[in-house]
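It would be a great kindness if you could assist me with a short task in structural biology. The matter concerns a single protein, recorded as an amino acid sequence and a row of backbone structure tokens. Kindly check, if you would, that the fold set down in the tokens agrees with what the sequence suggests. Thank you for your consideration; the sequence and its tokens are set out here:
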Amino acid sequence: MKYVILIGDGMADRPDAELGGLTPLQKANTPNMDKLAAKGIIGSVRTIPRGLHPGSDVANLTILGYDPKKYYTGRAPLEAASIGVNLSDNDIAYRCNLVTLKFNDTIIMDDYSSGHISTEDARELIGAVKAELQNDEISFYPGVSYRHLMVWRNGKADIECTPPHDILGKEISAYLPRGNGSELLNDLMKRSVKILEAHPLNKRRIAEGKKAATSVWFWGQGRRPSVPTFKEKYGLTGSLVSAVDLAKGLGIYAGFRILDVPGITGWLDTNYLGKAEYSLKALREVDLAYIHVEAPDEAGHSGSYKDKIRAIEDFDSLVVGTIIKGMESEHKEYRILLMPDHATPCRVRTHTDEPVPFVIYDSRINKENKGLSYDEGITKKEDIVVIEDGFKLMDYFLRDSSID
């Protein structure tokens, strides 16, 4: 038996008048996802435990079968693992975004991604910040696009920090780091503004009509987690592909093979097809492939229905469709789990914690859900599988007996 998990990050949404009362999933043309829904087991799952922040880190940890209330320590430590940063027991890792702030009478969070800055440009800018601000206590590490890392040796983990994508268009003063030790973070952020403002690359970006990276922004902090590998937990080997460091970090802690696919960006221009093709190839040697696609989530944060529908349709045709065709031709027995990790409604431009729809397709079972499409309406139907403790979904997906 082979297993594939297809994650459209933030793909779920809410009905909106702008789309005639539909969601982006309902509006989009998704024949491949609809095919799985029409022949699979449908259900609703809560990927964000009540009381926890609805982050992709929590949600994907849940999907992989790890109880976040037991294993979650923060987002940044996962990203540290992804870029090869080994944390000591006394290290606190912080996510370090390159953001665009608007400076007028007040300071506004204009863009959490500096216009989805390229990795090449971002590395030059974070390098300038590192040259000026790094010391024996503070270290900076470059990541992908706007996503970078800061490690604070013997630092503070209980500072109140806010994800920058949660405050788009808002004045930042109420959302700056607060609590014991926050003075250091605020000072570093303030000093980064002057460094970045003077950098010639930012001046060139502005001249080219691009957004400048005007500040670093710290959030998502935590200590190194301790989790069993997927092999230890389920007896299966796996691979994972994602453009997002937190997902790759989860894969590393799970003991998965991380697939290095060229051209994956986490945005609309990502190499969707490469993710599917590399995963199919990996399945010749491993038991499970985990495919994470970030673009729908990024579109949700941007508040763009047009971009989100495009991301969903590309995910459907280039990832889901390719996987279906490949599994049909290469494997006799297999299961596919299709779902978002959480909702990212365009109207609110941030993650929410409502249950999300999932489909499990088993090649040995021929369900007949005639006329059913894959969208949020699944969660409202009667006689579906409902999983409240989301980390139990993996047990349900993998178990040997008939899963319906």
Q: What stands out?
A: The two ends are 17 Å apart (CA to CA). Residues 82-222 form one domain. The first helix runs from residue 24 to 27.
